[in-house]
UniProtKB/TrEMBL annotation:
It comes from the Bacteria. The keyword 4Fe-4S does not apply. It is an enzyme of class 4 (lyase). The active site is at C362. This is Diaminopimelate decarboxylase. It comes from Liquorilactobacillus oeni DSM 19972. Its cofactor is pyridoxal 5'-phosphate. Transmembrane segments: none annotated. Pathway: Amino-acid biosynthesis; L-lysine biosynthesis via DAP pathway; L-lysine from DL-2,6-diaminopimelate: step 1/1. The gene is lysA. PANTHER family: DIAMINOPIMELATE DECARBOXYLASE, GROUP IV DECARBOXYLASE. Specifically catalyzes the decarboxylation of meso-diaminopimelate (meso-DAP) to L-lysine.
Length: 434
């Protein structure tokens, strides 16, 4: 298999390039840490997901799970590409609307949607609320009653499928905090409430088994369970789902040994499973919805850092410090996530040393890459960490009062700043001086 570091773009100057733009030029122009997206890669992934449904000749909708990277520029890009998005908070909803996402293409998720968030969703006339629990049904009903209006909903089911992934990002199992459980009868009770509610138009069902999943087996199992459920609900309640939403969670490649199915292959197997199961159950064919987040943006970005201090403990380890860390990428600390590092100023130089790439935060766990094989590094080298497009910026913090990084979109050799670097003053903007 090709090494991930060998798939990066290298320009005539022998530097790493992103969307045709020299990484060193980007680092110089915008400073570091800098998250640089290759826009063509995002567009390509959108196409791969969509095309596989078109080839399967089935009705579908691809919705971008915007928690992976929520930015005005991203909502703009994704809506131009014809996708809707899902949001999981009032803040994401507000950003999606400001980013020009048509409200009817927005889906709202969450296990504890606040009344004011639901109200914003209703007022904005969004396309669909994915109803997650009984309290939400009651909150939403009160809002709809008061406003004398209606909304479309889907019902989120926890299908009892354990995804093979980190336990923090597994969501389909029975003891998940998300969705209505089937075995205990919760899901059926919720169905009855929604069917009886004249203000909620129940369009279908939803499930999501987890994130960073590499194989289709879990999705196929979930489809099987969901269709069994739909069959039972057809027989008992004459309910027909217009939408079967099987969530997101399609994995991406962070390190050489990662081998997730490509986007189109995931879709192919999903379409095949839905076709088979729906035919067996003799149900009306639903529109298949999926919600990829990471798989649309993860591999399209790199984070550029400037190498700073170094600590060599002979015979023990070598630390190479960069000017960012857990504040711009919490994933290694939170999920023990692994990444590949490349020296952007000499990506093809002989890799002769195993080092620990650490950040500048006051935590020993602030490790970005544990065993990075790199050429000997020097201060002011530009170090790139690959595949940082998902859950990097959106999970960023101001820990230790470090400003969040800038974000740039690169395409056809042109770069465009889409998120400015925070300043020290920005970090104090909500504070009151007493
Ligand atoms: C309901 C739902 N949909 C979609 C996603 C997107 O997941 P991913 O970024 O893994 O595709 C998530 C996050 O896991 C989710 O909770
Ligand atoms: N933030 C997680 C994924 C969470 C998925 C959202 N339900 C990650 O970085 O992998």
């Amino acid at each position: 298999m090709t090494k991930l570091s060998e798939t990066v773009e290298i320009n005539g100057a022998g530097h790493l390039a992103i969307g045709g733009v020299d990484a060193l030029k980007l680092a110089k122009k915008y400073g570091t840490p800098l998250i640089a997206y290759d826009v063509a890669k995002i567009k390509n992934q959108v196409k791969r997901f969509k095309q596989a449904f078109i080839d399967g000749n089935v009705p579908y909708r691809v919705t971008y799970a915007s928690k992976a990277f929520s930015a005005l520029a991203m909502y703009r890009l994704i809506s131009k590409e014809g996708l809707g998005c899902d949001v999981v908070s009032g803040g994401e909803l507000y950003a999606a609307l400001k980013g020009g996402m048509p409200p009817e293409k927005i889906e709202f998720h969450g296990n504890n949607k606040l009344p004011e968030e639901l109200e914003l969703a209703v007022d904005s006339k969004i396309g669909c609320i994915v109803v997650d629990n009984f309290q939400e049904i009651s909150f939403l009903d009160n809002i709809l009653k008061a406003k004398k209006t209606k909304i479309s909903v889907t019902l989120r089911v926890a299908p009892g499928v354990e995804a093979e992934t980190h336990k923090y990002i597994s969501t389909g199992q029975e003891n998940s905090k998300f969705g209505f459980d089937v075995r205990s009868g919760q899901a059926e009770k919720a169905l009855k409430l929604l069917l009886d509610n004249p203000r909620m138009n129940l369009k279908g069902v939803h499930c999501h088994i987890g994130s960073q999943i590499f194989a289709a087996a879990g999705f196929v199992m979930a489809i099987n369970k969901m269709v069994q459920l739909l069959k039972a609900w057809k027989e008992k309640y004459d309910f027909t789902a217009e939408i079967l939403n099987i969530g997101g969670g399609f994995g991406t490649r962070y390190i050489d040994s990662d081998e997730p199915l490509p986007a189109d292959e995931f879709v192919k197997q999903i379409v095949k499973a839905v076709k088979e199961k729906i035919a067996e159950a003799k149900l009306k064919f639903p529109e298949i919805w999926i919600e990829p987040g990471r798989a649309l943006v993860g591999e399209s970005a790199v984070t550029l850092y400037t190498v700073g201090s170094r600590k060599d403990v002979e015979g023990v380890c070598h630390f190479v410090s960069v000017d960012g860390g857990m504040g711009d990428n919490i994933r290694p600390a939170l999920y023990q996530a692994k990444y590949e590092a490349v020296l952007a100023n000499k990506p093809q130089a002989l890799k002769e040393q195993i080092v620990t790439v650490v950040g500048k935060y006051c935590e020993s766990g602030d490790i970005l890459v544990r065993d990075a094989l790199l050429p000997v590094t020097h201060p002011n080298d530009t170090l790139a960490i690959l595949s940082t497009g998902a859950y990097g910026y959106t999970m960023a913090s101001n820990y230790n009062r470090n400003p969040r990084p800038a974000v740039v979109f690169c395409e056809n050799g042109k770069d465009k700043l889409v998120i400015k670097r925070e300043t020290y003053a920005d970090m104090l903007r909500c504070e009151l001086s007493l």
